[in-house]
Amino acid sequence: MLESEILCRACAAFGLRLENLKLLGRSQNLVYEHRSVEDSSILRISTGRWRTITEVESELAWMDELAAAGIATCRPLQSNKGRLCELIEEGGEQAIAVHFEHAPGRKIERAEIDEGLYQRFGRLTAQLHASSFDRPLQTAAQAGRLRWDQSRLLVQDLDDFTPARAAGFRRSVRELIQELRPQVEGRLGLVHGDLSFSNMFLDGERLWIFDFDNCEIGSIEQDFSVVLFDAIYCRLLNRVSMDELAQQIRQRWMRFLEGYCEVRTLPRIDPELLRKFLILREGLIYIHYCRTLDFSALTDATRAAIEEMRQRVEDRATEIELAE
User: Fold this and answer.
1) Which residue in 10, 52, 129, 270 has the most C-beta neighbors within 10 A?
2) Nearest-CA neighbor of 226 among 275, 189, 278?
3) Do 2 and 93 touch, CB atoms closer than 8 A?
4) Are 103 and 20 in contact (CB under 8 A)?
5) Residues 6+ apart with CB under 8 A from 232
6) What does each C-alpha distance from 107 to 34, 206, 311 come to in angstroms?
7) What are phi and psi of 133, to 5 degrees?
8) Which homologous superfamily does the CATH classification assign to the domain defined by 106-315?
């Protein structure tokens, strides 16, 4: 009932009709598509673990800058009161509602992800990095976002949600953070933080990027580790033999970098630094699983695979090996 009251107030704030909403997802946020005769748009409502107004405003400021620069992302839309986000208080609970343009095009099907698509992915990533690392951002775009090492997954959920048996995992994650912090200090910028085909639409030949909810102040190596782990490794795992895995990863990674270099000069990447961020990325995914999944409802195979993730992080190991 409380959720429906918040939803009604969010619709009223942005001039949307409740009957035109379709729920798309409810992981970290409630995400709805709003369809009308004129167009489609996206309503996002954050409750519970929601970010502060300042954090959300910074996210939206960057998206607005990117769209103004011609980068294919979705502009936030103003409420009836001329605000980009609305704080809704109902029954002692608070929520933040945001209204976005709907990306044109369609979801990307797994079967169509080829090396050409990775090349376009590389171009888009370079555009994002150019906007953040090659020219000054508006103050509002950076002011409210957390640093990579201040992520709630790392500073709070690491202890709150991982099991007692994961003491070695927690120690390994903390050691990685301590080692990485001085290595990337002084060359940080806004990064998307969740780059994958799941957060993109394909419109003709053009990729559109959305879901900037996890953007943070981080390094290029960190953003690259997300691409390697989420968009390459995880899409190949269990679909090719282990003998083929390294070759397939490298082929897709090389095409991604080709696309990147068409837009922006590739910075020198320390392979060991990238390797550490890859291990940390797997650690973040494991923490997220511990927070969101009911392990008793999982198959034995899935539980075993998640345990392997924990063990790899504890051992500081990764199945992704890339030469310099």
Assistant:
1) 10
2) 278
3) yes
4) no
5) 118, 249, 252, 253, 256
6) 17, 12, 33
7) -105, -20
8) Aminoglycoside phosphotransferase (APH), C-terminal lobe (3.90.1200.10)
The dihedral through the CA atoms of 51, 196, 323, 261 has a sign that is negative
As a whole number of angstroms, the distance between CA 103 and CA 209 comes to 8
Task: Kindly report the number of other CB atoms within 10 A of residue 236's CB atom.
Answer: 14
Cα separation, 158 vs 216, whole angstroms: 18
Class in CATH terms, 2-101: alpha beta
Q: How far apart are CA 27 and CA 211, in angstroms?
A: 12
Identify residue 198 by its one-letter amino acid code: S
> Tens digit of pLDDT per residue, the chain (324 long)?
457 899 999 999 999 999 999 999 887 789 999 998 888 999 999 986 668 889 999 999 999 999 999 999 999 999 999 999 999 988 778 899 999 999 999 999 988 999 999 999 999 999 999 999 987 766 566 778 999 999 999 999 999 999 999 999 999 999 999 999 999 998 899 999 999 999 999 999 999 999 999 999 999 999 999 999 998 888 777 677 777 888 889 999 999 999 999 999 999 988 999 999 999 999 999 999 999 999 999 999 999 999 999 999 999 998 877 655
Domain limits, CATH 3.30.200.20, in the chain: 2-101
Q: Which two tokens stand for residue 291?
A: 């927070």
Claim: this prediction has a pTM higher than 0.90? yes
- List every span in the chain annotated with CATH 3.90.1200.10: 106-315
